[in-house]
Amino acid sequence: MNRQLILLLLILILSIANANENQKFYGKQNNIFSFKRISQVLASPDGQQVAINVFQSKPDSLEKKWDYSLHIIDKVGHVSISNKINAISSLNWSPDGKAIAYLSDGKVFQSIWIEDVKTHTTQKLIEFKADISSFKWSPDGLSIAFTAEENTTKSEKSLSPIDISKNYRNHRLYRFFLGKTNTVDLLTQANYEVTDFDWAPDSQSIVFSFQPQIGARYSNQNKISILNLRTHAIKNVPYTINHTGTQPSYSPDGKWIAFSSNVEPSEFATQLNNDVNLNNRICILNNRSMRTHCLANTPNENPGIMGWSASSDQIFVLDAYKTLGYLIYALNINQNIPSKIISNMDGFIEPLTITLNRSHEVFGFGYETVSAAPEAFISKSVPFKLQQVSHFQSSVKKNTGTTSVIHWNSSDGKVIEGLLVTPINYNEEKKYPLFVAVHGGPAQAWAKRYLEGCDEYGQMIDPTTCLSNLLNLGFIVFQPNPRGSTGYGKTFRLANFADFGGGDYQDIISGVNHLIKKNIADPNHLAVGGWSFGGYMTAWIITQTDRFKAAISGAGNTDFISFSGTSDIPDYYVEYLGNTFWSADKLYIERAPISHVEKITTPLLIIHGENDVRVPSSQGYELYTALEQQHKSVKMLMLPNQGHLPTNANIIYKSIEEVGAWLKKAL
Which positions carry the signal peptide feature in this UniProt record (predicted)? Predict the structure, then answer.
């Protein structure tokens, strides 16, 4: 046998051995559809029943699609399941606990449906003349308040010119009287773009937040008013004349109204609702004197209201904390008492699932760990103690990979934190191909989550960073939280101001260097990817270095100037760079990947949603066209009928397969 044949056989044997070793990670690639996902967990008013909104896709079906179901579990563990044709959301128990309402598609518009808990009969309660966006049952159970756009029709496109400055419809507040056929009252006029609301305990008033104008660019200009349902008089909250106000919430005794506010007056006429200009505090309004005071803050300085304690002396809030994800804090109405953590867990609370029931005594939420898939849990608000109520994942094989918190020094000496995800058979003596996963935001953060999942927000799933897919390909995964990330306080969130692609880039690259220096990562097999801001940073990274062998940019900004004229948040870079491009365009040009496209040598996969209004697909087209004209290695996937993140199960599945195929270029 000649030497060339022997060498060829050795290469083949080593390749097979390496493939077999990779398969030991989990045994199956693209396995994210093997478990049920939880959208919402809500305890009944008396805490004796728990409603769980669940969706899943059959793992073995060729054509992936989401199946939806409503599970109701009673105090002895008996489960009733109602399968749904369409997605459901916004679970809301009736005050007497006999029925549960939710939003789902009607014949034409999104409507309110109601299910009798005892008989499990379902009927459409309200189909309005427009999509209903949100709703709440009145405490006395006699009516339902809801928000919906002004009268709309889902008809063919107009053949007449459209004035885009007037092509908007406000979300108004309405009241539906139960027991009276089709009786709906309009509560607010066109000058209010209603964003949130809450009922007074006596059902005689509604407090609501509103924007002065329609559009995401005005979402940090919310004010708060109180509507008297007897007189129809609207009273403005004085504090929010010069400050913002969102998430209004009545205390159970009716004496206070809590709301989230940016305590620093706005500097711009229009601002994006992001963490750069937010120093969020929870403030409370004395309902009699109309005076406001703000409470102690959380360490991250960006809390969101969950609800009041039953005793009306504390407000429960949720805020990010480093790689732990989200913690629940209690804020006393006495501003001199510091915030207190009431949830102390190693696992991850999914923030979109969490609720506080009508009696203010029971939390419900989806909870997961690195090795355990999400299940529904409840806890008393005081004292906080986890109680598992679902057992959806009993047949799902537990993941036994490892997620470790790591720290390193950036180029300027700043200590940066992140996560390193390794497989079950991780060998410390071996160097591994490294995938660098860049999170979105930038004011988001990686946290320890179930290793069979992805970066997920309900049905919105980022296909670029699904951990089991990456591990099965043979990568270990590095998840850095560079400056600009949330969970580390306002100063750290502000540290990337006017410095996109500067310090944050150095934080990521220094982390890669740290892993190479410790003989963990193989410098010859590096890949990078991410979605939204992560897509931008991926494109930016490969304009600055040729070290990466494959890259995936999902919904990434590539041209800051054109983005500012086409996105639904045109002030994004005004906020992050400090000025408009026509006033100071230096950073708009210098820090945009499109300005350095000639430097890219890394094979790049670009993915965009066809209907993305946040980062329009034109951003991807610009980069793709420039690279294609230079005959560079580039591919672009357009996800049909998808927005900023894909929600269609089959498209997500196929996208993950495309990601896997592309990343093999780095191996």
Answer: 1-19
Question: What residue numbers bound the domain in which 508 lies?
Answer: 402-666
Task: Give the model's confidence band at 538: pLDDT under 50 very low, under 70 low, under 90 confident, else very high.
Answer: very high
Question: Is residue 650 in some structural domain?
Answer: yes
Omega before 238 cis (within 30°)? Answer: no
Q: Is residue 621 in some structural domain?
A: yes
| Sole residue written with tokens 């001199």 | 336
Q: Is the pLDDT of residue 6 over 60?
A: no
Phi, psi dihedral angles at 161 (to 5 degrees)? -60, 145
d(CA 574, CA 230): 43
- Residue 451 burial by CB count (10 A; 0-12/13-18/19+): exposed, middle or buried? buried
Is it true that the peptide bond before 95 is cis, omega within 30 degrees of 0?
no
Closest CA to 196 of 171, 169, 230: 171
The per-residue DSSP string of 621-664 comes to HHHHHHHHHTT-SEEEEEETT--SS---HHHHHHHHHHHHHHHG
The total domain count for the chain is: 1
H-run or E-run covering 543? helix 533-544
For the entire predicted model, the pTM comes to: 0.91
Q: Where are the extended beta strands (E) located within 516-662? A: 521-531, 550-554, 604-609, 634-639
Residue 305 — left, alpha, or beta (φ > 0 → left; ψ -120 to 50 → alpha)?
beta
Omega of the bond leading into 383 within 30 degrees of 0 (cis): yes
Least confident of 191-200, 591-600, 605-614: 191-200
Token output for 450:
């179930």
Q: What span, in angstroms and rounded, lies between the C-alpha atoms of 293 and 311?
A: 19
Look at residue 76 in the predicted model and tell me its pLDDT: 76
pLDDT for residue 505: 98
Span 415-419, mean pLDDT?
Answer: 98
Terminal-residue alpha carbon distance, the chain? 30
In a domain, 589, yes or no: yes
* Per-residue model confidence as pLDDT tens digits over 258-308: 999 986 654 433 343 444 455 689 999 999 999 999 999 999 999 999 999
User: CA distances (Å), 377 to each of 212, 363, 484, in order?
Assistant: 39, 8, 32
Structure tokens at 633: 């290695």
Tokens at 246, concatenated = 């969102």
Nearest-angstrom CA–CA distance, 659 and 531: 12
534 in a domain, yes or no? yes
Distance CA 49, CA 117 (A): 10
Amino acid at 195: T
CA distance 441 to 420: 20
Q: Average pLDDT over the chain, rounded to whole? A: 89
Which CATH number is 524's domain given?
3.40.50.1820
